[in-house]
């Protein structure tokens, strides 16, 4: 062990002078004339400027459609929103479209429905996936591999095939227009079990064994020793599941017909039907509906992006 | 580790009940339904053998829809595999404010497809921003009816699928890029390799595992496109933007022909399965060829 870590530590050291030699321009004493001294920095400035111009150009492509929607939502009734060429800046920005659309569009009901469904789905996944992952990672029992393969194989089955029988099943169980009906089909995912199993596998067995010697049972080991250690993976799973539940459209579309149970995506879609071509209201309603997720994303963006990276590497 | 025989079952039980009730049982039932004439009116179905499949293969719309779904795969998947690589390289630079740009590019990913669809429907309007920009640049002379013309609707919807997915795959590639040791680039720089050659000879080969993941993920999700179509075109005009999942949805929940729709669902399952297998085999071969 010690020899290994010593070798690892020593390795980078001889590299350092090599790296310095590799980049002689950065060493001012090597540079001969004043012309060569300014040239690389000039090139760097141009490179940097080009990088920022590209970054901003791509940003415009990525947020442009949202900004155009926002501009439309802010335009007053007297302004022609179909003007050509389009006017990107509203003449006299107003919030009246937002207040008007909120009268017809029960935003807070939809927000509450979406929140309840997302929180319940996340909670169920965190609990059930990490419960199921524990024996798959840390116990030996007959049929373990078969169970694991069966679980993983569910990832290959498209929900779009299952939605018809699940719909019939949900009708028979009286789950239409209920939160339970929205949550249950997504309450456990093979991806979640897989992710949590990987997380449990990285924790040394000695921890379980010493806890067992102190008289802890399997459930206590799972809850008190392992769960706190896999918190980063739990965060990843929570964000993945949240995004899935929050954005889900197809299943709520099928299982809900009572408007008061609508989640945000369904509510926004219904704007298109209710205000057929009143684009000011449609735009205002859409903008209101994305605010919650944008706020959550702004606060937790680090976890969103790190989580997606981790999920990709593991999944 | 010592444990009672029942302990693993206790842990597995809740998750397995849900997977069983909402995946395995429906899976078997879907296959069974595809051999029946189940519909919402007649809930005691008769076994009809392969009649649904016969009807499906005789339906011109099914073949049209299948063709359009494959077109989706052929065009949207390469776009989703390659464009995000350049985005990832772009946001992998050590620059001030780079995390801000990463978040901006990720924004369409966190936004629901319904809002994205509405925003793009508005962009695609005849007198909308897209036509205006293209006219200003001089690429077109008169407005294109993006979503209301049979020749463009599928591609217009496809562009939205790609646009929304870019940020997600960019992040996957970003993880891959950050695992590439930087001294490889330093060595290439000394050898005088241009940035472009560095991308071709270092970045792309070393990114192969991520490329494989993205290819599989984006093909499977391209097979399942639904929301953007539902929000923007409803499959129209004249079914020109309808894909397989939209067809299944229509048959099951608009025409209420659950048995027939299940047969189409089984086809979807077989095609997605084939694509995962072909993808995995193809990528494995390439990876081995690169190593050897």
Automatic annotation (TrEMBL), chain A:
One of its GO terms (cellular component) is plasma membrane. Signal peptide: none annotated. The chain crosses the membrane at residues 49-71, 107-134, 146-170, 182-203, 234-256, 279-300. InterPro entries: MetI-like, MetI-like_sf. Residues 1-41 are annotated as: Disordered. Residues 111-300 form the ABC transmembrane type-1 domain. It is found in: Cell membrane. It holds the Pfam family BPD_transp_1. GO terms for biological process: transmembrane transport. Keywords: Cell membrane, Membrane, Transmembrane, Transmembrane helix, Transport. It is a multi-pass membrane protein. The keyword Transcription does not apply. SUPFAM superfamilies: MetI-like. Its main location: membrane. This is Putative chitobiose transport system permease protein. It comes from Thalassobacillus cyri. The lineage of its organism: Bacteria, Bacillati, Bacillota, Bacilli, Bacillales.
Automatic annotation (TrEMBL), chain B:
One of its GO terms (biological process) is transmembrane transport. Pfam families: BPD_transp_1 (PF00528). Residues 66-279 form the ABC transmembrane type-1 domain. Signal peptide: none annotated. Its main location: membrane. It is found in: Cell membrane. The keyword Transmembrane applies. Keywords: Cell membrane, Membrane, Transmembrane, Transmembrane helix, Transport. It is a multi-pass membrane protein. GO terms for cellular component: plasma membrane. The keyword Oxidoreductase does not apply. Gene3D superfamilies: MalF N-terminal region-like, MetI-like. This is Putative chitobiose transport system permease protein.
């Amino acid at each position: 062990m010690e020899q290994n870590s010593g070798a690892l530590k020593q390795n980078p050291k001889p590299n350092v002078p090599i790296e310095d030699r590799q980049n002689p321009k950065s060493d001012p004493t090597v540079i001969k004339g004043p012309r060569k001294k300014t040239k690389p920095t000039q090139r760097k400035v141009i490179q940097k400027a080009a990088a920022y111009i590209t970054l901003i150009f791509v940003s415009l492509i990525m947020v442009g459609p949202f900004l155009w929607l926002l501009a439309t939502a802010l335009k007053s009734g007297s302004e022609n929103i179909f003007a050509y060429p389009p006017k990107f800046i509203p003449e006299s920005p107003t919030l009246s479209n937002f207040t008007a659309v909120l009268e017809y569009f029960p935003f807070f009901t939809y927000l509450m429905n979406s929140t309840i469904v997302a929180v319940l789905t996340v909670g169920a996944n965190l609990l059930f996936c990490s419960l199921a992952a524990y024996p798959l990672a840390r116990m030996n029992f007959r049929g373990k591999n078969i169970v694991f393969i069966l679980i993983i194989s569910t990832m290959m089955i498209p929900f779009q095939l299952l939605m018809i029988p699940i719909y019939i099943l949900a009708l028979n169980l009286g789950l239409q227009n209920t939160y339970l009906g929205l949550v249950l089909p997504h309450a456990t995912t093979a991806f979640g079990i897989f992710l949590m199993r990987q997380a449990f596998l990285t924790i040394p067995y000695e921890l379980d064994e010493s806890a067992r010697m102190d008289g802890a049972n399997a459930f206590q080991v799972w809850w008190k020793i392992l769960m706190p250690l896999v918190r980063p993976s739990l965060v990843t799973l929570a964000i993945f599941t949240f995004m899935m539940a929050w954005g889900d459209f197809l299943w709520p579309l099928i299982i809900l017909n009572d408007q008061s149970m609508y989640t945000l995506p369904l509510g926004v879609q219904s704007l298109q039907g209710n205000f057929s071509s009143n684009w000011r209201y449609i735009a205002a309603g859409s903008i209101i509906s994305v605010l919650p997720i944008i706020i959550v994303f702004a606060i937790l963006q680090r976890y969103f992006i790190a989580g997606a990276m981790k999920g990709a590497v593991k999944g | 580790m010592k444990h009672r025989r029942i302990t693993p079952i206790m842990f597995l039980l809740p998750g397995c009940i849900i997977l069983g009730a909402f995946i395995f049982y429906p899976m078997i039932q879907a296959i069974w339904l595809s051999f029946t004439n189940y519909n919402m009116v007649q809930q005691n179905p008769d076994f009809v053998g392969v009649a649904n499949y016969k009807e499906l293969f005789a339906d011109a719309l099914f073949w049209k829809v299948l063709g359009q779904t494959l077109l989706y795969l052929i065009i949207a998947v390469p776009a989703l595999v390659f464009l995000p690589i350049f985005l990832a390289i772009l946001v992998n630079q050590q620059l001030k404010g780079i995390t801000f740009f990463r978040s901006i590019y990720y924004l369409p990913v966190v936004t629901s497809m319904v809002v994205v669809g509405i925003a793009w429907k508005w962009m695609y309007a005849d007198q909308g921003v897209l036509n205006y920009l293209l006219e200003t640049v001089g690429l077109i002379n008169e407005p294109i009816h993006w979503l209301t013309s049979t020749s463009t609707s599928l591609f217009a919807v496809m562009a939205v699928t790609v646009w929304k997915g870019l940020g997600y795959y960019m992040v996957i590639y970003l993880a891959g890029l950050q695992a590439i040791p930087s001294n490889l680039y330093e060595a290439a720089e000394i050898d005088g390799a241009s940035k472009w050659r560095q991308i071709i000879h270092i970045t792309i080969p070393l990114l192969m595992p991520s490329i494989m993941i993205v290819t599989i993920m984006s093909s499977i999700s391209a097979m399942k496109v639904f929301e953007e179509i539902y929000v923007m075109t409803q499959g129209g005009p004249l079914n020109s933007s309808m894909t397989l999942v939209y067809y299944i949805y229509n048959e099951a929940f608009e025409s209420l022909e659950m048995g027939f729709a299940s047969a189409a669902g089984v086809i979807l399952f077989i095609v997605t399965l084939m694509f995962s297998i072909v993808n995995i085999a193809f990528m494995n071969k390439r990876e081995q060829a690169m190593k050897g």
